[in-house]
Structures are given as structure tokens and as C-alpha cells.
Specification:
The chain is an all-alpha fold. It has helices at about 1-15, 25-40, 50-65, 65-70, 80-90, 90-100, 105-110, 125-130. It folds into two domains: about 1-70, no CATH class; about 80-130, no CATH class. About 60% of the residues lie in helices and about 0% in strands. The longest helix is centred in the middle third of the chain and has 15 residues, at about 50-65. Keywords: Mitochondrion, Mitochondrion nucleoid, Transit peptide.
Length: about 130
């Protein structure tokens, strides 16, 4: 039985997309790491709690199949999937952190660092259009 669980999780990991723009916060990468930890011995791994393992697999399979996306649609946001991906990327989140800095921190950085010019904000064009 542990063999079939191991192969189920491997198949799910292979189907789950890994997003390189979300460094340190990508669910696909995290899933690969957790499966590697849980099944260190591969097919020979003995699970102490098979029911919990099956429940975890079923929950992840529902997430992967977009079960909750279809069950609870969110039509009011007005953003496309590509715009969500852009906003949630690591680079954009760093830019938002920069925007949220206090005035004193911004002034300190402005006068202490003389680095290359600031790169353009990747998320600015997508958020400038009016919501429909």
C-alpha cells in the first residue's frame, strides 16, 4: 500500500507546475521537498498514519484539479491569471516592500547608496488599466 501512495504522490508532483518567479514561496517546489522527506526510502517507506497520508493526497489532488476555483469563483477581482502571476512574483513583492518603506528609510537609502538606476516596475502597466 505504501508503494501505491509513493507513486501517487510522485505523479502529483510531476503534474504540479513549478514557478521559478516565486523563489522561496512556490507550492510546487515545497511539495517536491515534502514528498522527498516523507518518502525517504521510496517504495519501501512505511507510513505510520496511512489515513492521514491518503487525506493529504486527496486534498492536494483537489487543489491541483482547481476544485475550489470552480466551486468558489471570484469574479469581482477583474484581473487575469497572468496578472495574478505577475503580482505574486518575487520581484514584484520586493518592489511592493520597497514602496511600503517609511519616508525616513527612503531618504536614508537615497543619500547613502549610489547604485545603478532603478529598474522599471514590472507590475505598473498591468495595474494602470481600469477594472471592468
Amino acid at each position: 500500500m505504501a508503494t501505491s501512495r509513493y507513486w501517487q504522490f510522485l505523479k502529483l508532483c510531476e503534474e504540479w507546475p513549478v514557478d521559478k518567479t516565486k523563489q522561496g514561496q512556490d507550492l510546487g517546489t515545497y511539495l517536491w521537498q515534502r514528498v522527498a522527506e516523507a518518502f525517504r526510502e521510496g517504495d519501501n517507506t512505511q507510513n505510520a498514519e496511512p489515513e492521514a497520508c491518503d487525506q493529504m493526497y486527496q486534498s492536494l489532488a483537489r487543489l491541483h484539479s482547481n476544485y475550489y476555483k470552480h466551486k468558489y469563483p471570484c469574479p469581482f477581482s477583474g484581473l487575469s491569471v497572468e496578472e495574478y502571476k505577475l503580482i505574486l512574483s518575487t520581484d514584484t513583492l520586493e518592489e511592493f516592500k520597497e514602496l511600503n518603506k517609511g519616508m525616513w528609510k527612503k531618504l536614508q537609502q537615497k543619500f547613502t547608496s549610489k547604485g545603478p538606476k532603478e529598474k522599471p516596475k514590472a507590475w505598473a502597466p498591468s495595474l494602470s488599466r481600469p477594472l471592468t
